[in-house]
């Protein structure tokens, strides 16, 4: 099969050192991987060098270099990566999906709809390098779906209103992605990602479950990330619902996700304006209070993460220098 059908292009060709064979990761289950190659699908495992020296562990969507047919020697440099901070105290990146062109951020138009959560997803989408599209699902459950869509469009990303259950509006997603490109579905549990995936694939690839009536929350139907080839020629990665969405993004991505505030801030009288009622502030009187509070909160989170990353980088550099000095002392004797 043609690798271009799986998203292969000149960018990845330029990263591959022949005679290694290119393959795309379709499924990653700890140390066992399913990959697509020009000759078909096969299972693969991580090679010794990757296991002990590699900086990047393969994730779904990655292009990898295969040796001996089934051994992953390396992960090719990613073009884009949708990531979050690894859950817990460690300041490490957890890549959710790699080499995606479009991120479909799915939200349910039921009791779980939350604009502030969408802002967080959007910020991470801009950081990933992919094009974000907000998908408002379950339009059949909300009489004012058009009004909610108009309010959501103010966040600065394209919005599609659909019902994955009956299929209405789903075909409009094709306008946001081309054949050979890769999309990823993300969103909270219970928003209908599995139902949408089945609709896009025209099959029952994923199980679906009902959400709780009390709070519109669902249980994880998708328990692993997996890459699929859709009938219309583009690829799609399904991801489990994210219960914990810790940022892995910088302050620049906050301004991209809040472009309206960033633009108004340039008109403030003071360069270090905090937009909290200072004289000459162009933001406070023009932006919804809840959105402005969300902007400030995410700015603080992003700044804190940047400081943590700087501290971790300094610590790792210190460890590297110590290892060099120890090696130098040993070489003298």
Can you characterise this structure?
The protein has 333 residues and is an alpha/beta fold. It has three domains: 3-75, Beta Barrel (OB fold (Dihydrolipoamide Acetyltransferase, E2P)); 81-238, P-loop containing nucleotide triphosphate hydrolases (Rossmann fold, 3-Layer(aba) Sandwich), CATH 3.40.50; 251-320, Orthogonal Bundle (Ribonucleotide Reductase Protein R1, domain 1), CATH 1.10.40. 30% of the residues lie in helices and 22% in strands. The chain is built from eight helices and 13 strands. It has a six-stranded mixed beta sheet with strand order 10-9-8-11-13-12, with helices on both faces. A five-stranded mixed barrel has the order 1-2-3-5-4. A hairpin with a 3-residue loop joins strand 4 and strand 5 (71-75). Helix 3 (115-128) packs across helix 6 and helix 6 crosses helix 7 (259-265). It is flat, with a radius of gyration of 22 Å. Residues 207-220 have low confidence and may be disordered.
Strand order of the largest sheet: 10-9-8-11-13-12
Strand tally? 13
The main sheet comes to: 6 strands, mixed
What's the shape? flat
Tell me the CATH architecture of the largest domain: 3-Layer(aba) Sandwich
What descriptive keywords fit this protein?
3 domains; Ribonucleotide Reductase Protein R1, domain 1; OB fold (Dihydrolipoamide Acetyltransferase, E2P); Rossmann fold; alpha/beta; single chain; 333 residues
């Amino acid at each position: 099969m043609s690798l271009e059908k799986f998203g292969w292009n000149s960018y990845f060709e330029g990263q591959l050192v022949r005679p290694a064979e290119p393959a795309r990761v379709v499924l990653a289950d700890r140390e066992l991987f399913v990959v697509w190659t020009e000759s078909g699908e096969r299972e693969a495992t991580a090679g010794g060098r990757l296991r002990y020296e590699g900086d990047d562990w393969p994730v779904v969507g990655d292009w990898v270099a295969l040796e001996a047919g089934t051994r992953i020697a390396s992960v090719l440099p990613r073009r884009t990566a949708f990531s979050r901070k690894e859950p817990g105290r460690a300041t490490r990146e957890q890549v959710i999906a790699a080499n995606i062109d479009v991120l479909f951020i799915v939200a349910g138009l039921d009791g779980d709809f939350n604009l502030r959560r969408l802002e967080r997803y959007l910020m991470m989408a801009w950081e990933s390098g992919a094009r974000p599209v907000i998908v408002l699902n379950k339009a059949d459950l909300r009489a004012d779906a058009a009004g909610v869509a108009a309010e959501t469009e103010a966040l600065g990303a394209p919005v599609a209103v659909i019902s994955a259950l009956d299929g209405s509006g789903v075909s409009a997603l094709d306008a946001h992605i081309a054949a050979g490109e890769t999309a990823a579905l993300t969103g909270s549990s219970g928003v209908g990602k599995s139902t949408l995936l089945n609709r896009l694939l025209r099959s029952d690839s994923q199980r679906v479950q009902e959400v709780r009536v009390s709070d519109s929350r669902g249980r994880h139907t998708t328990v692993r990330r997996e890459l699929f080839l859709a009938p219309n020629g583009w690829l799609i990665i399904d991801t489990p619902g994210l219960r914990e969405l810790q940022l892995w993004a910088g302050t620049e991505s906050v301004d991209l996700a809040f472009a309206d505030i960033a633009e108004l801030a340039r008109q403030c009288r003071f360069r270090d304006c905090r937009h909290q009622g200072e004289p000459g502030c162009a933001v406070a009187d023009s932006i919804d209070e809840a959105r402005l509070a969300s902007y400030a909160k995410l700015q603080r989170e992003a700044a804190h993460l940047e400081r943590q990353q700087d501290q971790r980088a300094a610590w790792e550099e210190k460890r590297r220098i110590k290892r060099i000095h120890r090696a130098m002392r040993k070489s003298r004797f």
